[in-house]
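pinned: reference chain
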Amino acid sequence: MSTRPAPGTEMIFQWRKWDGSPHWRHECVYLGADEWGDWVGQPIGWHSIRPGAEFYAEASNVTLVPPSGDFALTVNRDHPIGMRVYIDLGWDVRWTDDPLLATGIDMDLDVIRLEKERDPVEGPSGTWVDDRDEWAEHSIRYGYPADVMSRLEALTLDLEDRVRRQVAPFDDATADRWLDRLEALGLERSRLDA
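pinned: its structure tokens
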């Protein structure tokens, strides 16, 4: 196991695609670890960027990096559209030898849970699996191995079920402890500070 930074230390979570090309790069802060894995946070106003897109966090969020290395669970507080849970299915999600850098391969599929109902024109409400079309397209483009695909498809359905039932760590109480810890650090930024 690689060394972790001290809680409160700024760090980077860098995603890439299967072919090694860069994907999302998130400014984060290390929060600590519990029985589920390591937790990092992104305060309001912190930056995320990928080729062709960027945003500044509009809501405090924490991300669990579990030891299994096959997903990252992000939980938001007071998100503008009510997005509470966003799970990125991944591969080789882990800490590098650099304690200020966690990385992973984004595997397209996502599990999402919204807290509030939306107009059907805006998109789905509740809990669902997203980006199945991207998964199908990229499985051909990148040549995902069949065993990786089978494992992640089964895991996606399992995660969707656990998110629906709010089984820990996919319950509100587990993430809220880490969100409270993040907000207590007082690290919010305005876009002018970035």
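why pinned: The beta strands are 10-16, 22-34, 37-42, 47-50, 53-56, 60-65, 71-77, 83-95, 101-114, 127-130. The chain has a mean pLDDT of 94.
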